[in-house]
Structure formats: structure tokens, C-alpha cells
Amino acid sequence: MFRRLSPPYARLICVGGGAYDNRRWTTTTADKTTSPTDPQTWPKDWTSADIQKLLRDHLSNPKAPPNYDSFAVLHNIGDYKSLAFLLKAHIKPPAPSEVDIDEYLSRYVNNIADSSSMPVQERTTQLDALVNALSAQRSSENRIIVYCTSPRGTGKTQFLKWAVFMRYSEAMRCGRVIVRCCDKAAHDGGDKTQLPWITQVLEDRSSSSTPLERSSVDDGLCELIRTHVESVTGSRQDQTNYRDPHTAYATWMSETARHFNIPKDKSNVNPLIILDTCEILSEHDHKSLVHKH
Fold first, then answer.
1. What is the superkingdom listed in this entry's lineage (predicted)?
2. Contact 114, 106 (CB under 8 A)
3. What is the DSSP-derived secondary structure letter of residue 87?
4. Most buried residue among 115, 174, 191, 210 by CB atoms closer than 10 A?
5. Same structural domain for residues 126 and 38?
6. At 3, is the secondary structure helix, strand, or coil?
7. 38 vs 55, 73, 86, 167, 261, CA distance in Å?
8. Contact present, 86 and 73 (Cβ < 8 Å)
9. Shared domain check, 175 and 30
């Protein structure tokens, strides 16, 4: 399925059947720029609390934080070599300056053998139809959902990858495209402490929710966007900034604009969500998505 939700939403498609860059990790203070990976850029009078504030969003394992008091001691005596060595064990590497399309797709879809640039034979007409269906006026806030179906084994996943490469590569490189295989997501172990987005979506099947209550489908969408933004920017994302679809969309746009330096007037970077092998979504009744006549 290809689903487009123009502001305040995004687009959605459902198909059924690096090197360190310290420039991405800088924080501007009153008189200088500080980097989590370079203690020599930290102000001389910084305390353990100041160091903690700088590093907390860049920890590779927030549940096992470093000893900030020890960091402060090393910083105060000017032992930057030892401090930098310790930082490497606790700070996750900065996210790349752009998303690698094939690396990203191999992580989230099942077809990892073929490159996204490999053309799909005799599918140009379908690709043009897809792009046309996803086109919407910038001022529109209507959701656009495109559902593509193809018999199993006919190359639907490769078509998805090829479509991204041919028409949405620029948006993908700056974090504006989310791609997930529903089947793969449903069987992925993932972070046991966080409810996966697909689980939240499927929970709606047994919900007795009313139109006035919060939908677990919305929760799943927000979590999908949050984890994507966290992955492509390398910065921890506060769940309060993804509390509803409208807020999640706005945060997605602002965070990717910040990290990838996207100009406000840049074209071809409209948001897009692509779900592959989404048959699992049709196997259950979704109480909150019942058509009303």
C-alpha cells in the first residue's frame, strides 16, 4: 500500500502479496561549538551535570550511562586523550550525512539480494501510474493511500525498491521516506522494552475503542515515525514529540530538516511511508477503521 498524507500527514504505500561526521553532533553554546565526541571543544568550567546534559541524547546504551563525575575530573585536569577513549565506549557514532538507500532497504525488507537500481522489466507504466496517484497539491491535507497488489513471486518487493530508486531517492537520502516490511517487522525480536509499531497496529483488532478514544493504530504510526527518525538522525527522540500523528509528522519534518540541512524550498523531499507484504494487516478486523455509511 502506498499512502500519502499531505501536511499534517505523510504518504503511505502498502504493497500486498559510515564514516563519522562530527558536524552532525555539535551543540552551539554562547561562545563556541561543542561536540560530544571531542572533549577539547567543551568549556573549561563544565561540571558533570553539564557533560551529562550534552551526552544524554547520544549514548549508545542510555540504561548504562558513564560515570559523569569521572568524566568531569578528566576534563578538569585536561586529560583529553583518556576522556576521548572512554567516550568511544559510550557514545554512538554520528549518523551519516545521508541515508544509504540499499543499506536502508536491506535492513527493513526481505529482498536483500538485488540492488534498488536493478530495473524491473515492463513496469514503467505501473511506476508512472503509482507516482501520478501519489501526487497531491501541497495545500491539501487529504490522505492519499495507494494499494498495489501482485501475485507472490512476481517481484513486488523489487518493484518497491526500484520505485524508491527511480522517483523517491532524494527524499530517501534525507530521511523523508520510511520503508517497512510488515511481515519482517512482526517477526523481528527488536527492543523488548519498547512495544513495536506493528504490534500496536495489530492490537486494534481486539480493541473496543470508540471514535472518542485513542486508536492503537495511531500509536503504531507514531512509534513507526519516531523509531525511523531516531535511526536516520542518530538522535534519541522523546516520545512526547510523537504523541499523535499530527505532532509526529511535524517532528519528523523538523528533525530531518535539521539533521540533513534540508532547505525549506527544496523539492522532491515530500514524506512517504511504504509498507511491504501488508497482507498481515488484512487478516484481522480493525475496530477503529470501520467504514461508516
1. Eukaryota
2. no
3. H
4. 174
5. no
6. strand
7. 11, 16, 11, 39, 22
8. no
9. no
Where do we find the cell 524508491? 164
Q: Which residues contact 60 (CB under 8 A, 6 or more apart)?
A: 90, 91, 92
Residues 68 and 123 placed together within one structural domain of the fold: no
Number of domains in the chain: 2
126 DSSP 8-state letter: H
Do residues 270 and 253 lie in contact, with contact meaning Cβ atoms separated by under 8 Å? no
- CB atoms closer than 10 angstroms to residue 89: 9
* pTM > 0.90: yes or no: no
Name the DSSP letter for residue 215: P
Closest CA to 134 of 276, 268, 272, 265: 272
Q: Find the domain containing 28 and state its range.
A: 22-90
Nearest-angstrom CA–CA distance, 273 and 222:
12
Rounded Cα distance between 36 and 38, Å, is 6
Q: Are 5 and 12 in contact (CB under 8 A)?
A: yes
User: Do 30 and 164 sit in the same domain of this protein?
Assistant: no
Q: d(Cα 143, Cα 246) in Å, to the nearest integer?
A: 12
Cell output for 101: 538507500
